[in-house]
Amino acid sequence: MDRPKQLIGVIDEPGPARDALAETIARDGLAVVAVSHAEELPSGVDLAVAHVRAVPASDWPGLCERLPTLVVSDTRDAPDLLSAVDAGLVDYIVEPCRHGQLLRRMIRKVIRLRALEEARRGDQTRLEELNETLETHLAMLRLDQQAGGQIQRKMLPPRPQTLGGVTCDYWFAPYLYLSGDFLDFHLLDERFLLFYFADVSGHGASSAFVTVLLKYLANRWQTEWDGAQPEALPARWLSDLNRELLDTGIGKHATLFVGIIDLKRRYLHYSLGAQLPMPLLVVDGEVTPLTGEGMPVGLFPGAEYPTLGCSLPENFHLWLCSDGVLECLPGDTLDSRLRELEQQIQASATLAELRANLALDLTSGDEALPDDLTIMLLSGFGHADS
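Below the sequence we write its predicted structure tokens.
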């Protein structure tokens, strides 16, 4: 399909000179309409060529507001010619019929620049519309995330709680509104206290949905437990959750620690899936990482998890931290940051003290956390309520 010709409006007094100017412009395939006054120009004109004898300098600004305009003159002696550009005109040409090729080239260039400018304005308008739509959707998403964050907090247990002589407390700080961290604790019966601590890969809505799945499965598995073989329960949970996550096919995995405290024996049964940092047991001021290792859940089909355990003394603190805490510690290597964490925990008897030592007491206007961050503290039996 042929592109329509650009229409050029020539404004000049009637006569052979105007006809010659129109003919000069039309030689390059341009459509030309000749008029005596600017008001006679029809709609659809892309550019005006105004002769100084027909359009006085006082009328140039008004004409320029309507159309891109070139002014032409037969002599350099025309008054105000040198100020044409200052008046808003594109440019001026002396003896246009003699310099017809230059005149047509300038006309083509002005038309092309005008088309580019119109395209730019169109793009800007579309971008503004898209930006407004994006802002609307972003506001809706923010509201959804805030609502999801409130629901996620409601899923967490009340804090602190003292259950069977063990006080359970935690600090929970999402990176945004939703968190990939999650924890829970409660009595299975008068003898056994269950707790778990999870850190789902990534953060945001998709990771938070996995914590909802974890909460649902944990509740279901608790009702199914018959009270036998508590030592095997943590490892079985991890195996079952590993299978459930793989079956969903959502590409999410998690590190997880599951523990059951036998309140009668004062013994901790536990299993873990790639928990980092390892839970830290503090007894008489000495910090000891729990032993054991296991694969993350949700990555490897058929993964098996260890059955582990340790005695709990009369007075102990058991600290569990999500890996976000490592981002808040000084040190160039993982080992140096883990050592720093042990030192900070050794110097802290409460959650408040550890948060203060790690400078985690954020206030409005402070820099946001670099990751989801959760700290859990179990204190027993003589340290309960500490």
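The two ends are 84 Å apart (CA to CA).
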